[in-house]
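Support case: 2-acetamido-2-deoxy-beta-D-glucopyranose complex. Customer-provided input:
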Amino acid sequence: MKGGLITFILILAFASPHSCVGLNPKTKDTFNVMDYGAVGDGKSDDSQAISKAWNDACGAVTPGTATLVFPQGKTFYLKPMDFQGPCKSKYINIQIQGNILAPTKAAWGSKDRYIGFLYINGLSIYGGGAINGQGSSWWKECTGSCQRPTLMCIHNCHDVTVNGLRNIDSPRNHMSIYLCNGVRISDLHIQAPGESPGTDGINIALSANVNIESSSIASGDDCISMINGTSFVNISGIACGPGHGISIGSLGSSTSSSDTVREVHVRNCSFTGTENGVRIKTFQDRVGYVGKVTFEELTMIAPHNPIIIDQHYFSKVKETGAVAVNVSDITFRGIHGTCADEKAIELNCNKKFGCQNLILDNINLTSSVPGKKTIASCFNAHGVATSVIPSNPCLQK
Ligand SMILES: *[C@@H]1O[C@H](CO)[C@@H](O)[C@H](O)[C@H]1NC(C)=O
Ligand SMILES: *[C@@H]1O[C@H](CO)[C@@H](O)[C@H](O)[C@H]1NC(C)=O
Ligand SMILES: *[C@@H]1O[C@H](CO)[C@@H](O)[C@H](O)[C@H]1NC(C)=O
Ligand SMILES: *[C@@H]1O[C@H](CO)[C@@H](O)[C@H](O)[C@H]1NC(C)=O
Ligand SMILES: *[C@@H]1O[C@H](CO)[C@@H](O)[C@H](O)[C@H]1NC(C)=O
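Agent response - structure generated as follows:
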């Protein structure tokens, strides 16, 4: 009886596969750029093929995930391009196993970013491949008012994962996260020379719920910077250096509209030969708020300024104290290692109400120069210090 039923089903299945109206034909969900005519020799222009493959992937009606594939062992020469949503399927994968190579400055055109991922929800980028911005063709020639492009922009996207990617030699910033909610970044490796100008690692603005972990960032500017409208960010397991360290700011671009960064947690990161370790920088006589920030379990390997709050960033005139950016509830805990300069801790707060509720706990920063001492320096910094070297920290109640 049972055997008879199975035989019956098998006959049904094999008898008329094409006339079986009850089942959908398998929907295509993988879009390999090679199938669209990409060459992948690092010289032929693969832009059209990649654009076509993306349009099909983004337009695919699949019940699951549409995947755009850049296969391994190939280098795709791609002109500046936006991968723009919204897409039809709920999830979009971009599997970058091969390399993507940008044009040099001479062949660039006018775009202000290299690759834009825009208005895509459920986006996942992975594969371990590299995006190379050929920044050295810009760094020397393009200075002053010359605008250099950002390598990779993730703008207006929700629920984004980047896991396994290398970003190399951006003309300017490597990755910009803007107007996003829900971003998880891991195993990202950013690499540009320490002398390359303005090549930030990751910039975050107007975004919330961002988690960055287990990554390395070597660049010529900030490792990670967070500016206006950034909240609920966790950063852990990042090796920074060379570069300028992890920064909140600059904040306070206006005297009327408030800049805000809050709920930022930086843990288990190292800073090797960087300009700064962890820094908060705000302009004087501006409005804004930086609060509920923790920097903990950090290893400093001879940065110049391991711990720094600078509320007089780029200020040439005297502070009036009419308004100020409110910096409060900032914790520095478990920070160890060495410092290349004498000033290991600098807390240079605003004149109006100072920084409030700073906590310095379990800090030991010695000089990287044998026999030299380190010092702490404060202006209007309020809070509590326990077990801190350099000792005699200058916090007020
Ligand atoms: C950040 O870490 C906290 C504490 O571990 C956790 O509750 C929160 O969900 C994390 N946020 C993100 C965006 O990963
Ligand atoms: C700290 O980060 C390193 C590098 O990513 C990682 O290997 C290690 O497991 C992390 N440790 C903790 C306690 O999270
Ligand atoms: C900061 O972002 C907020 C939105 O969160 C906006 O209202 C404000 O204008 C921005 N500040 C500046 C100075 O642009
Ligand atoms: C700074 O902001 C915190 C949190 O909102 C608030 O409690 C505190 O009163 C503010 N400080 C000043 C001087 O406005
Ligand atoms: C601080 O670090 C230095 C250098 O590693 C070490 O010699 C010293 O014992 C440490 N001090 C404390 C109180 O842990």
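Confidence is low (pLDDT under 50) at residues 5-25.

Case will auto-close in a few days if no follow-up is received.
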